[in-house]
Amino acid sequence: MCKVNGCDNDSAYVKDDVCQMHYFRFMRNGTYDTVRKRNYRYTNPKGYQAIYEPDHILSQKNGYVYEHRFVMYSVFGDNLPDCALCGKECNWDLYTTHIDHIDEDVTNNKPDNLRSLCNACNTGRGKKEQYLRSTSIAIKYKDEIKTPAEWSRHDQCTVTGSTITRRFRSGLSAEDSIFLPSKTFKS
Question: What pLDDT is attached to residue 4?
């Protein structure tokens, strides 16, 4: 008979003196108890806090939601604000929108410390401003300084960053380099 109290199954593993069910339960959980308690909150190796909310719209397969995403959803719901840096439209897609900690402390999940960023802005947020790099061109227009690539993401710009760079280097004004429509030549 199995050595676990209340189990009437035959002992399948003589060395451990337990039935097959309890043997594999011990292998999975490290205990013979039937239910292993799930922590409501846990911290992942990078320091991000996650809470167990399996019915939440943003929950992952394991039932956990990152707390910073949970807080932003409770404030804004489905109407996530646009990217705080470039103004690009953001939604709750995990691969295109990030919830950024402004003070870079991943444990500070207060609403005033969180902002939504598009993937491109989130990738470059911790880097030195691109226009300050020695290899970049800085284009100033209406008291804003950006690189040609950043200007190309402007709502009214219809050309690429390389076109803006070429125009600016050829002597066009900042406004013309950014906002003139593209010209195509057909032979």
Answer: 84
- Residue 33: which pLDDT band, with cuts at 50, 70 and 90? confident
Would you state the pLDDT for residue 145?
84
1-10, 70-79, 116-125: least confident range:
116-125
> For residue 100, what are the domain limits?
41-124
What gap in Å lies between CA 108 and CA 77, rounded to an integer? 20
Extended strands (E) in the chain: 41-43, 49-52, 64-66, 97-101, 114-118, 139-141, 144-146
Residue 78 lies in a domain: yes
Indicate the number of domains in the chain. Answer: 3
N-to-C CA span, the chain: 90
Statement: residue 51 has pLDDT above 90:
yes
Same domain? 109 vs 135: no
Mean pLDDT of 138-146: 86
Return the residue matching tokens 């470039």.
Answer: 86
Does residue 65 sit within a domain?
yes
Rounded to whole angstroms, the Cα distance separating 161 from 153 reads 9
- For residue 68 the two structure tokens come to 């910073």
Of 82, 100, 124, the position where a domain reaches its end is 124
Joined together, the tokens standing for residue 56 give 């939440």
Does pTM top 0.70 for this prediction? no
- Compute the distance between CA of residue 115 and CA of residue 101 in angstroms, rounded to an integer: 7
